[in-house]
Amino acid sequence: MSSPRDGVNPLRPYYIPPTIGEQPETLPPRPNPFSHTNVTPTPPSTPNKYTSRARNIFSDIDYKDHLEDLSPSAIQSIKQFVDELLWKYTSVVMAQPFEVAKTILQVRNQDDLGSLNVPEKPPKPSPGLLPAKQGTIFDEYPESDSDPEESAYFGSNAPYTPSPSPWSNEPRGSSPLDSPTPRSPVKPVPIPPHHLALRRPDSIFDVISQLWAKESIWGVWKGTNSTFLYTVLQSLLENWSRSLLSALLNVPDLGLKDDVDRLVDIASPYPWASLCVAAAAAVTTGLILAPLDLIRTRLIVTSTARGPRRTLATLRSLPSWICPSSLLAPTILNSLVHPLLTLSTPLVLRSQFLVDREQFPMAFSVAKFCASCVSLFVKLPLETVLRRGQVAVLSDPTYTQALDKTNKLDTIVHPGPYNGVFGTMYTIIAEEGSRAIAAVGKMPSQPKKRKPSIAKVVYRKGQGFDGLWRGWKVSWWGLVGLWTASVAGGGGEGEF
Questions:
Q1: Which of the four, 150, 328, 335, 386, has the lowest number of CB atoms within 10 Å?
Q2: Sign of the torsion formed by the C-alpha atoms of 161, 166, 167 and 168
């Protein structure tokens, strides 16, 4: 190897030595045996020389920040985990009063609000008219038509005996109208003291005020611990089952966090397979946590005075930890809504419309918000059916004996019937309760100076489609708040 001191190597005339890295070592000058001067030999290089050179090669690159993110310490991991749990619990506490009110409205059998099932009142006699009696008016005044001294030409020969007037025995000033018509007294149905007397079938704040008046703060925030436990376990089990299915089926995993953008970035070769894996993981998690969801519904629809109220103690008292057969269909359908609609949004946007977060951030955010709204309005009817099915299962003698030691589930509202998924929806729309609608018909031609006529109100049986979306306003405003926070601050990810 040549050095700059040796000049140009004739075998490598165009070779330029590197400016960084380990410099080529120059050989020590050979001693001249014919010279009388003493040359001191050069000491061999030590390993520290190579270590210092290797450390100083990339001294201008700051790599410590990158290594800290990839390998956090144990204390930082525990702190991050505790912060996430506190954030989840705070979110549950803030949303629990509205969740309790929405669940009660979904479970409640809506009472008749119109004129259906109301006993008809007897017709009230108009003033000034006497009730009709048998006979004629001539029977009341027989002495006004004939003289008692005249001989009866067309009657019997028996002597006439004047009959007293029918009004003679009644006190003066009395009339048949003064004596009311005898009616059987209608006894009001007694309402248990812990029942909620709701005035409107769709008022969230009416339910919250009634709970506060009857059960104070414990009634408004009941079921908070079970909801928090369900939320944490759902996130952990869904991520774990998704990773397991991804490893078994050899498809890319979406990661620990439920980030919808990673579905396209990671699973670009076959994203639909990853989407199916996410849906299967959500269904599996919903079926595993069905007993805990059953306990949460029971804590919400029963009074706080009923025991037991502890989540784990009630969970141990269940007769079975397997999802009941009657709840399989609503549980599966309710679990499929989020992955099929929300997780498929970025995939459809990028593959069909070429829209992603980097190039069109505002369009992507609006599309994501619209997908969340569609997911909400599809999920609410299925959630209503699921809640009624859970109350029907809890009302079974097997569960009431195991949990309440009684033969009846004592709820704070009258629960509605459960007839399967589509049967329950049809019952809510067409048979349960009533709704007021405006009478539709041709308006007769009226003169301009005539007073406007009052519109007639007709009551139709059934709640209509509004009965399937009880509590949608609160959930929708929650989505609006989260979307506004994400647009303003670049965060706000979550589900209300």
A1: 150
A2: positive
Give the pLDDT of residue 200. 81
What is the C-alpha separation between 304 and 240, in angstroms, rounded?
Answer: 35
DSSP at 467: G
The residue type at 242: R
The two structure tokens encoding residue 174: 């009395």
Alpha carbons 98 and 227: distance in angstroms, whole number: 13
**Residue-by-residue DSSP string for 269-305:** SSHHHHHHHHHHHHHHHHHHTHHHHHHHHHHHHB-TT
456's tokens: 């007639």
Window from 159-173, 300-314, 346-360, 390-404 with minimum mean pLDDT: 159-173
Condensed to tens digits (0 to 9), the pLDDT of residues 119-140 reads: 444 445 445 444 444 444 445 4
For residues 494 and 408, give the distance between their C-alpha atoms in angstroms, rounded to a whole number.
Answer: 38
pLDDT higher than 60, residue 267 = no
Of 81, 85, 98, give the one whose Cα is nearest residue 496: 98
| 358: its two tokens | 């980097």
Residue 24 per-residue DSSP state: P
The residue to which tokens 């990158």 are assigned: 66
- DSSP assignment, residue 109? -
Residue 313: phi, psi to the nearest 5? -65, -40
Q: Is the dihedral of CA 90, 93, 99, 103 positive or negative?
A: positive
Residue 463 has pLDDT above 90, yes or no: no
Stated pTM of the model: 0.68
Helices (H), 109-261: 137-140, 204-220, 224-249
Give the amino acid at 260.
Answer: V
Cα–Cα dist 51/323, whole Å: 64
* Structure confidence by residue, pLDDT tens digits, 185-211: 545 556 777 788 888 878 899 999 999
- Do 102 and 473 meet the contact criterion of CB atoms below 8 Å apart? no
Q: Calculate ∠ Cα 100-106-109, nearest 5°.
A: 120
Rg over alpha carbons for the chain, rounded to the nearest Å, is: 43
Q: For 167, list phi and psi in degrees, rounded to 5.
A: -95, 0
Amino acid at the residue 173: G
Whether the Cβ atoms of residue 33 and residue 39 lie closer than 8 Å to each other: no
Q: Which residue has the tokens 């038509």?
A: 145
Q: Is the dihedral of CA 234, 235, 240, 243 positive or negative?
A: positive
Cβ-contact 113, 435 below 8 angstroms: yes
DSSP-assigned beta bridge partners for residue 415: 108
Q: Is 86 exposed, middle or buried (0-12, 13-18, 19+ CB in 10 A)?
A: exposed
